Amino acid sequence: MKNRFSLLWCTLAFVGLMGVRTLAQDAAAPAAADAAAEPAAGQLVAADGQSPPPANKDTGGFWAVVFGSGWLGVALWFALFAAGGIAVYLAVDSCITVRVKRIMPDALVKNVTAAMAEGDVLKALKNCEDEPGPLANILQAGFGHVEEGFDVIQEAVTTAADLETERMMQKLTWMSVVANLSTMLGLLGTVQGMIVAFASLATGAPDIGVLALAISQALYTTAAGLTIAVPCIATFYALRNNANTIILRMEALTMELIKDLRNVEVVEE
Predict the structure, then answer these.
(1) Does residue 134 sit within a domain?
(2) How confident is the model at residue 228 (pLDDT cuts 50, 70, 90)?
(3) Contacts 24+ apart (CB under 8 A), 21-30
(4) Counting CB atoms within 10 angstroms of each CB, which of 9, 98, 214, 231 has the fewest?
């Protein structure tokens, strides 16, 4: 759990640093434009002795759209940035945890197989306690009912397998939730931008700057939502298919390991 929180904070810090870098670049751009607009030595001036008017400043930058879209727009962008950070964290965490070696450690399988070949259930149970994980939890559920008959063992193993499968799939389902929320947030930003744009047109003499900013808000939020949702959905289905394959292998391996419990007897030391 501590490692997951550390990974989450590192992800959010990375997203924040990228945002600060972009903000610094956008802040430096107008200054560079003003410097370029200043008349150099020996530059020709107009007939009235005045310098030509400077070029219009760029007000259509990304951060101008973010902070110029009102409190609702800022809230939407904050939610989109948070969704992007959470999506990266979930993808990295799932890629680390949903693996065959993490769910079915080779050492655990080897030790339990050897213990069951010897008919030593207590040794197999001790190996499961030393290697905690989904497969170990399922095997422990079966070994814990060895004295109650094979039917009870199968029922306990099935229940434990369903529980471990649900835990694994719940983690992956959050990626689908983030993808859907990102799309909805992008759509909400589009609607908000269109409302502001048409409200500006309704005045009869719309401010071109306000109109362009509203349309930029609509397009930027749509693009941001899709940029988060598309890779998130692709990653979700890829990880889900991988998880289903691992689950099937785990169930087959579990049944192979517990089949010897039909006639095994527990010897108390």
Answers:
(1) no
(2) very high
(3) 22/62, 22/63, 23/63, 26/61, 26/62, 26/63, 26/64, 27/63, 29/58, 29/61, 30/57, 30/58
(4) 9
Task: Check residue 227 and give its pLDDT.
Answer: 92
pLDDT digits (tens, 9 = 90+) for 244-264: 888 888 888 888 877 766 655
pLDDT score recorded for residue 181 = 92
- The verdict on residue 123 lying in a domain is no
Could you give the CA distance from residue 175 to residue 78 in angstroms, rounded to a whole number?
A: 18
Domain extent, residue 170, equals 2-21+62-104+161-262
What's the confidence (pLDDT) of residue 263?
58
pTM exceeds 0.85, yes or no: no
Asked if the structure places residue 244 within a domain, the reply is yes
CA 74, CA 41: separation in Å to the nearest integer?
43
Domain count, the chain: 1
* Higher pLDDT among residues 86 and 264, named by residue: 86
Structure tokens at 69: 């879209």
Q: How confident is the model at residue 125 (pLDDT cuts 50, 70, 90)?
A: confident
Burial class (CB in 10 A: 0-12, 13-18, 19+), 77: buried
